[in-house]
Every structure is written in structure tokens, then in C-alpha cells.
Write a structure and sequence with these properties.
Blueprint (H helix, E strand, L loop, with lengths): L2 H8 L3 H8 L5 H10 L4 H8 L14 E8 L2 E9 L5 E5 L6 H9 L3 E6 L5 H4 L2 H8 L3 E4 L8 E3 L4 E4 L2 E7 L8 E6 L5 E5 L2 E2 L2 E2 L6 H13 L6 E4 L5 E2 H7 L5
Parallel strand pairs: 3-4, 4-5, 5-6, 10-13
Antiparallel strand pairs: 1-2, 2-3, 7-8, 8-9, 9-10, 11-12, 13-14
Helix pairs in contact: 1-3, 3-4
The structure holds fe (ii) ion (FE2).
The site of fe (ii) ion (FE2) has 6 residues, from loops.
Length: 249
């Protein structure tokens, strides 16, 4: 959408749009632009006023989040295990696997699988090192192959000890973007990669509306208490995103 299309659609003047871009927070203009773009106005206004904050959520005790640096940002990867069998699964690989190796040793875990949400470089940088050290097989979305990884078709199920993991293909941010829903922990959890973030979504370059629908179907239709583990930023829940995410008014 061009700026001309947007000012027409929102019923604002070009200087209003320029003011927003310059960081001036005129609520009426924000509201109009948000509505025109199908965004939840109150959430966009909260972001503009720096009133947004991440929800406070406690992770189940057998889920670890690792945040590693990538250029001027950070990327998350996760370790989840079944407390009885001590069998673990790594989700994505991040940019520094040392904390993951330390956790495997500390908790006496055996890494049985590496499941990738998508193939973007920041999520798989340490894949080879994790594979070499643990000998765990790696899996990547069927429509987004990664060298040496077994394909994960939509709806594929994995059993790891008492845990069941179901893959949901959610194309949009990337062609094969895959969400892994995990059952068997004290709270349901879903590893979502860059499909959705706390208060945002991963960038979508084409087929925007179908991508939003895929997120609704593949993530926001999970049980409301499901904890979402995104590839960047804080963790969140389905309920929290249904109530606050600006992309799903
Ligand atoms: Fe990504």
C-alpha cells in the first residue's frame, strides 16, 4: 500500500502521516491508520505511548529459554524435556549452543531430537554443532528444507517420553513456518518461531491476509492457556495475544 492509498483510506492528511512517522503520537491519526490497516487501535496506541509490557508468565520447570545475540538483536531457542525419562528436545538452534550444552549436563538429559521452526539463519546457526555434539537427529519443515534434516509434514506427531508434539504448518513469515504444540507438561506449550510474537508477528512479505488467517487457525485456536514460545522477544500466551495483539483485533 502506498502512502497515498493509506491517507485516502484513513481519511487523514499527508502531514498527519508524516507526523506519525516522526514519532508524534496524535491519537486520532493513530486510531484511523490502525483501523484502516485492520489493526487493533488501542494496542497500537499503547505501543505508541510505550505503555505495552510483556505478560508475566512462569515457564513449566522442564522448559528452558535461551536468548542468544544476532547482529543488533537476539534470537530465542528452547529446550523441553520429559521429567520422568529425561529425554529432551531442542527447538531451533540459536547462535550460541553452549548454554544448551550446559543445561543438558546439569539436568542429566539426553537430547533425542532437534526440531526447527523455520530455516532462517539466525535460528539455525548452531545446528551443526548441536548435531555433532549430541548426535540427535534434526527435523525441518517439509516445505522449508534444511540440509541433513528429516522433513516435517503438517500434522506430524512426535512422542518423546510422556510428551506429544504436534507440528502445525503456519506459512506466512516463511513458506514452511512450523509451530510445535507440546502436550504432557503441566501447561500446554507451543514453540512458534517467528509466526507470532508477544504483541506482534513475524514480518510477512506476501499473501498477508492468508498469513494472518493461518496464524489464527494454527496458533490462536490452541487452548487459551497455551504458553507461546517465540523466536524473538518475551514469551506470551494464546489468551494474552487474543486480547492484545494489534494484528488480531
Ligand atoms: Fe524468521
Amino acid at each position: 500500500m502506498t502512502d497515498r492509498d493509506l491517507v485516502k483510506l484513513a481519511g487523514i492528511a499527508v502531514p498527519d502521516l508524516n507526523n506519525l512517522r516522526a514519532g508524534r503520537r496524535e491519537p486520532t491519526a493513530i486510531e484511523r491508520v490502525a483501523q484502516s490497516l485492520g489493526l487493533r487501535p488501542e494496542s497500537v496506541i499503547a505501543l505508541a505511548n510505550e505503555a505495552w509490557s510483556a505478560p508475566a508468565i512462569a515457564l513449566p520447570t522442564t522448559v528452558l529459554k535461551f536468548t542468544t545475540p544476532f547482529a543488533d538483536m537476539t534470537v530465542n531457542h528452547y529446550l523441553v524435556w520429559d521429567p520422568k525419562s529425561l529425554q529432551a528436545i531442542a527447538f531451533d538452534a540459536g547462535t550460541d549452543a553452549d548454554p544448551l550444552f550446559a543445561a543438558l549436563t546439569r539436568h542429566k538429559l539426553v537430547l533425542t531430537k532437534i526440531l526447527l521452526t523455520h530455516a532462517h539463519g539466525d535460528h539455525i546457526l548452531e545446528l551443526d554443532r548441536i548435531r555433532e555434539k549430541t548426535k540427535a537427529p534434526a527435523f525441518a519443515p517439509e516445505t522449508e528444507p534444511v540440509e541433513g534434516c528429516e522433513p516435517v509434514p503438517n500434522a506430524k506427531r512426535f512422542k518423546v517420553g510422556a510428551l506429544t508434539i504436534t507440528a502445525h504448518a503456519v506459512p506466512g513469515h516463511s513458506v514452511g513456518g512450523t509451530v510445535y504444540e507440546i502436550k504432557g507438561l503441566e501447561t500446554p506449550v507451543a514453540v512458534v518461531g517467528d509466526v507470532i510474537f508477544a504483541g506482534s508477528i513475524g514480518g510477512i512479505r506476501s499473501r498477508y491476509r492468508p498469513a494472518l488467517e493461518a496464524i489464527r487457525a494454527g496458533v490462536l485456536s490452541l487452548p487459551a492457556e497455551t504458553i507461546l514460545l517465540p523466536g524473538h522477544g518475551p514469551i506470551t500466551t494464546v489468551a494474552h495475544e487474543l486480547a492484545h495483539n494489534p494484528f488480531f483485533p
